[in-house]
TrEMBL record:
<feature type="transmembrane region" description="Helical">
    <location>
        <begin position="66"/>
        <end position="85"/>
    </location>
</feature>
<feature type="transmembrane region" description="Helical">
    <location>
        <begin position="247"/>
        <end position="267"/>
    </location>
</feature>
<dbReference type="Pfam" id="PF02361">
    <property type="entry name" value="CbiQ"/>
</dbReference>
<feature type="transmembrane region" description="Helical">
    <location>
        <begin position="14"/>
        <end position="36"/>
    </location>
</feature>
<dbReference type="GO" id="GO:0005886">
    <property type="term" value="C:plasma membrane"/>
</dbReference>
<feature type="transmembrane region" description="Helical">
    <location>
        <begin position="42"/>
        <end position="59"/>
    </location>
</feature>
<dbReference type="InterPro" id="IPR003339">
    <property type="entry name" value="ABC/ECF_trnsptr_transmembrane"/>
</dbReference>
<protein>
    <submittedName>
        <fullName>Energy-coupling factor transporter transmembrane protein EcfT</fullName>
    </submittedName>
</protein>
<keyword id="KW-1133">Transmembrane helix</keyword>
<keyword id="KW-0812">Transmembrane</keyword>
<feature type="transmembrane region" description="Helical">
    <location>
        <begin position="124"/>
        <end position="145"/>
    </location>
</feature>
<keyword id="KW-0472">Membrane</keyword>
Amino acid sequence: MKSKLFDYVERDNLVFHLSGVTKLICFICLTFSVMFSYDIRVILSVMILSLIFFKVSGLEWKQIKLMVIYVIVFLLINFVLTFIFSPQYGVEIYGTKHEIYRFNSRYTITLEQLLYQITKLTKYASVVPLGLIFLLTTNPSELAASMNRIGLNYKAAYALSLTLRYFPDLIRNYQDISLAQQSRGLDLSKKEKLGVRIKNIMNICVPLIFSTLDRIELISNAMDLRGFGKHKKRTWYASKRLKRQDYIAILIAVFVLVGSICISVFINRSRFYNPFI
């Protein structure tokens, strides 16, 4: 079965009807509100909001499966390494120490360290649905038009659009080359040793790289022949006008961002929420 990772599939729902500019602004505002604050209440609120929009978007599991697995592995490794290298950082931040279990004088599990690490984990986890919604519900051509409308040079915007368009093609090319090589006797199963499998994968990557370079040259020549980059500005076929639903979504995102900053500055008097005082 062909991978659907990074594939854009049009659907008839609220999230897909929003303009690319709207989704870009919402993504920036909500991401910054999470990154700025270490208040777990704010972060969980943004996470719940992003999960609701993720559910409304109707994205399929096969589109995000591989990415979610990588994110979970990254979060677990980050959680463990944070404790290994900074086991008392939570104590330093919150200024108190409530021990739960002591391994030795250096490694002690405390409520403060758990709160810090769980907050840090939820920060990363809450951004993932936002990124997936933004990437998988925005037409690459419209994304380029949206980024150009907010001031990004259209050449850079178009380059990003081409990159997002090429990810699904790259995965499909890898699968096609892999199947062709396996039909010729290349073994990628667990029956082979790890070193042999890595070597066999490299035998797939080499033709994949050359086919990618050929495709890049083909696209570059086609763009040059059509005069791409000759003028300082360009028009966009996929650009959308902002509608009422776009303004409402932007207002919600800005409200969340302002609320996050106000809670940190005026209520917590710090980026960190301290329930131990």
